Design the sequence.
């Protein structure tokens, strides 16, 4: 019995309870057989989308539609599955809600699009691409692929994620815990950027913000070359950095540069007016 | 006259004060005439070294910035001065140009109407204090999302304002030091953010059209 | 050589550009910069031997020029004015760094023998009919700084000994003798390089 199927069953039970309370809700189940490295694309403007790794070669979709003002469009061709919540005339952000619980093969390449719904992707090995407006985005326990997240104002939470990672946000905070990769690039406007991890893997980490604060917490044994600059904000570090010639010197700006340990990874922290703090983990 | 004497007077010879003794020595001494020929050659070819080298574009960038700072350049500098982009040759800025072209492509999309019952309220977009004058592309985005719930429209307007503000600040930083590659990278990040706002607005629209 | 090719057209627009630059026109400044940048930069590069210094000095020279452009009345050629300013900027820099501008005339031991006598078979080691520009440039860059300054100012840039003496603050005689030594040294460098090349081929 696949883990995904167990989950779907559990979810179904919960949803049946839910369904009995809201007569308008309609439950739809979809099932697809796919090959290796399938491409799964879900587009759901309103409502949560939760995707977890399940059995290989199959995609199981459980959807709860909150009214008849929204319908599911699905298409499958070759190794690609598309599911779209199609909003009909008269729909809005509450009657247009669809709640998704999806299980996909671990090697699937996933594309998720939401407006204000929460998006959750877990335990995947393929590429994960998420775009959202206001909803929170969580990527948990994913490794091996390219993780690309775009949001306007949703909070982005990456936990235990490894790979090539790119996050872009305007107002949403970006919180990273145990995130490493060859490239980890975060670009935010007013959203704050927080990182807790060891910057390992000889990667290139670049966190840039306009006004959002940037805080990184690294262990004492971290091995990084740091370049931190905030044009108008404070830059602080718990670490004492071995000085290394900084390729720039800007009068009137605040900057720090140097190395910790063997400087295996490169960490660049840039902000226009946010505060930048590099803290040492206490344990 | 012997060779040593000839050579000691050689620089005068080359200046044009040749004595008959020097001329006589030359006729009979191949070593000295060889030396004379070589030195004349070097002297005459030297002017080919003028203006040989092309200076880096960095120099003009710094110079122009300084001229503006000192008020020697006295014209209003437009916020998104196209001249800047013509001058930069760094590879980074090619994707920015591409991003701007894609962003400009927003004009091709027509605003869709979701649901006949939705009131189509055209929002006028006020320029926020920190951001520069609203561009035509910004107006396009606001038109694109005009038929959405007011909270969403307000969110888009705010996001555009933030993106514009970032671009404005990054442009100022680059203007202050055109050779600072990190400011250039910040400017590119700022443009990418704005492009993201466009894309999200437009994608949303396209999805609704299906 | 771009400077030589378009003198007429540029003379007229240079006048215009100067007038517009006085009004603060950015395009006019850029035009003037483009017109003269290679000459100024090459001068700085030949005199200092390093690109970073040459870039700074080029910028400084144009900056000083543009600051004073309001006082330019057209009595002399603009390029002469600019060029003189560039030379002064470079010389001031060399002085600051205590680099020898011109070594004081001294007799070295080898001079007794004379250049010619040192060579054997001098006739067939004459330089070829023309010198490759790059070889010459490399040889100039290898000259000791004092020799290089005089050679660049006189033979490359065309200043007279009396002008050089005034700019550097040495005697005319000193200028002449240093120039001669610079040329001799260049000849040696060029012949060594050529001999090395021939040796490599065989």
Sequence:
């Amino acid at each position: 019995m696949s883990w995904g199927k167990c989950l779907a069953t559990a979810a179904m039970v919960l949803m049946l309870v839910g369904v009995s309370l809201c007569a308008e809700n309609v439950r739809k189940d979809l099932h697809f057989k796919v090959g290796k490295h399938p491409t799964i694309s879900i587009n759901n403007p309103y409502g949560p989308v939760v995707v977890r790794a399940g059995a290989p070669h199959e995609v199981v979709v459980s959807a709860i539609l909150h009214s008849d003002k929204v319908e599911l469009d699905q298409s499958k061709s070759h190794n690609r599955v598309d599911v779209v919540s199609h909003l009909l005339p008269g729909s809005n952000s509450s009657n247009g809600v669809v709640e998704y619980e999806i299980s996909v093969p671990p090697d699937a390449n996933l594309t998720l699009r939401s407006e204000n719904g929460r998006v959750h992707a877990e335990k995947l090995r393929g590429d994960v691409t998420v775009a959202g407006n206001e909803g929170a985005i969580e990527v948990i326990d994913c490794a091996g692929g390219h993780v690309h997240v775009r949001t306007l104002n949703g909070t982005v939470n990456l936990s235990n994620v490894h790979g090539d990672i790119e996050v872009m946000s305007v107002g949403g905070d970006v919180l990273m815990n145990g995130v490493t990769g060859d490239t980890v690039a975060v670009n935010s406007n007013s959203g704050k950027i927080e990182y807790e991890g060891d910057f390992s893997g000889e990667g290139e980490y670049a966190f840039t913000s306009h006004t959002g604060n940037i805080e990184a917490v690294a262990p004492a044994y971290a091995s990084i070359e740091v370049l931190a600059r905030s044009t108008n904000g404070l830059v602080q570090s718990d670490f004492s950095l071995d000085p290394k010639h900084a390729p720039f010197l800007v009068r009137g700006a605040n900057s720090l540069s140097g190395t910790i340990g063997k400087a295996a990874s490169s960490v660049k922290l840039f902000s226009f007016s946010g505060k930048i703090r590099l803290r040492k983990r206490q344990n | 006259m012997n060779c040593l004497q000839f050579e000691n007077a050689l620089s005068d010879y080359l200046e044009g004060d040749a004595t008959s003794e020097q001329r006589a020595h030359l006729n009979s001494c191949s070593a000295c005439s060889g030396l004379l020929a070589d030195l004349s050659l070097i002297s005459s070819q030297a002017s080919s070294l003028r203006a040989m080298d092309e200076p880096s574009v960095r120099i003009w960038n710094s110079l122009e910035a300084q001229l503006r700072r000192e008020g020697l350049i006295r014209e209003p500098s437009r916020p998104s001065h196209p001249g800047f982009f013509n001058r930069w040759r760094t590879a980074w800025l090619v994707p920015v140009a591409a991003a701007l072209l894609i962003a400009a492509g927003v004009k091709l999309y027509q605003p869709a109407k979701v649901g006949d019952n939705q009131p189509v309220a055209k929002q006028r977009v006020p320029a926020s204090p920190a951001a520069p004058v609203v561009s035509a592309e910004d107006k396009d985005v606001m038109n694109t999302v005009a038929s959405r719930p007011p909270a969403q429209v307000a969110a888009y307007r705010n996001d555009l304002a933030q993106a514009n503000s970032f671009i404005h600040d990054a442009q100022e930083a680059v203007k202050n030091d055109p050779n600072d590659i990190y400011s250039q990278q910040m400017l590119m990040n700022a443009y990418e953010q704005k492009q993201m706002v466009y894309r999200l607005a437009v994608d949303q629209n396209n999805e609704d059209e299906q | 050589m771009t400077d030589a090719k378009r003198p007429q057209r540029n003379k007229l627009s240079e006048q215009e550009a100067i007038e517009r630059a006085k009004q603060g026109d950015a395009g006019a400044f850029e035009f003037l910069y483009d017109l003269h940048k290679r000459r100024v930069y090459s001068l700085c590069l030949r005199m200092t031997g390093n690109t970073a210094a040459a870039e700074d000095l080029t910028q400084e020279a144009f900056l000083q020029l543009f600051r004073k452009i309001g006082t330019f009345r057209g009595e002399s050629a603009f390029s002469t004015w600019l060029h003189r300013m560039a030379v002064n900027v470079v010389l001031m820099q060399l002085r600051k760094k205590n680099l020898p501008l011109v070594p004081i005339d001294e007799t070295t031991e080898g001079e007794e023998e004379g250049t010619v006598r040192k060579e054997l078979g001098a006739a067939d080691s004459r330089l070829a009919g023309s010198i490759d520009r790059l070889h010459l440039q490399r040889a100039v860059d290898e000259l000791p700084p004092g020799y290089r300054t005089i050679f660049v100012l006189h033979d490359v840039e065309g200043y007279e000994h009396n002008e050089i003496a005034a700019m550097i603050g040495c005697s005319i005689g000193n200028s002449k003798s240093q120039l001669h030594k610079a040329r001799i040294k260049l000849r040696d460098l060029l012949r060594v390089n050529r001999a090395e090349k021939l040796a490599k081929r065989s």
